[in-house]
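Lab notes, practical 5.
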Amino acid sequence: MLIKKIIRIFDKIEDRVRGKLSHYPILYALIGGIGVVLFWRGIWHLADDVSITSLGSFALGIIILLITGVFVSEFIGKRLIISGLIGEKKLTQREEEEIETEETQIKNLQNTLGRLEKKLDHMETHLGDEEKPEVR
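Output from the prediction step:
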């Protein structure tokens, strides 16, 4: 029960802080970055305090990452795995194709606008030739 209360308190605090900091993204990033660095510094010093060797740290880290499923997603990324499974092209190739498609769409829009301008000019010329009603 006590743990649930503590978690609820931190959850409420997190919601308030996140809501306020979201209006200041640079400050939010700075505070978040400091938190991440201090977290990893604490882990590093804790490993030193309990005298874990570098090989032991490496092995323990891999075991933890494999058991939690974080190893592959952290170092390769879910998007890369999914794109490989469904046979998508590389991100750089896809971006080039998207840019080319966008350029083609822009050219088509420019051509359409050009045709509309010509039609409007023709209509203005045609309307100008007709008799204009008298203004009283």
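Observations recorded by the TA: The longest helix spans residues 91-129. DSSP finds six helices and no strands in the chain.
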